[in-house]
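Notebook, p. 212. Picked up where the previous page left off. The plan for this session was modest: take the two constructs that came back from the sequencing core last week, fold each one, and keep the raw output in the notebook itself so nobody has to go hunting through shared drives later. Recording the first one now, exactly as returned: residue sequence, then the structure token string.
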Amino acid sequence: MSTLIERLGGEPGLQRIIDDAYVRIFQNDELRPFFENTDMDKLRRMQRVFLEAALTDETTLESAGVSIREAHHGRGIARRHFTQFVECFLQAMEARGEVHQQDIDVVIGRLNMHAEDVIGSSTVDG
């Protein structure tokens, strides 16, 4: 039985999804400002580490050295921004044409598990 990451195309497939998602993110007028002065190579590497941890049962985010809440604290990210960000990943997976809907649903569900850490509050809705 293959893993979720293998079904996404392994590390190369996951990287293509990340790259495509960031193209879409930079086309979004509300999301682009969050990333304009960011080292994109570093961000893509960090995103891959996060996704690998989030999408596997063997690795926890803590063991991957990722502190989502600290990385996003004070950046002004509202729920609508998070939703748009996840939508970019959804579109990137759908555009590949080879990712099954069930796997897309699992990825989106795993991303959404971290919404409160990214937006920093469960009471603010933007």
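Okay, moving on. Second construct, recorded in the same format:
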Amino acid sequence: MRNGGLLHPELNLYLSLLGHTDRFCIADAGLPIPDAVPRIDLAFAPGKPSFRDVYEAVTGVTVIDKAFCAEEASEEMRQSFQERLGPGCVVTALPHEELKVLVGSVRFVVRTGECTPYANIILQSGVFF
């Protein structure tokens, strides 16, 4: 048994398979996920787990060099994305409709129980060296 970090085996597997520039999405409960995109569904009740909890856990163990969010997301939400990822990571805001199209090209989606509108982010894997 692991002694900390991420404990979810399927999430650990998908994260460990990421290569440089691979993209994945952390999504709220309502984001449409194309059938062809693998889904790690963590949602078990409205708001649970929260987007923030999943986002912090995943970004704590993954190198991210670029991110995409909806320009319709609140300024506070977009700022929190940038703060967590740091100044070396570019967070690009796109129209929500464009973000939904981009979801079709990600390696996988992690679905949370979040019910806040536009609580979705596509993260691009970086390298640790």
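Notes on construct two before I forget. The first strand starts at residue 23 and ends at 27.
Flagging for discussion at group meeting.
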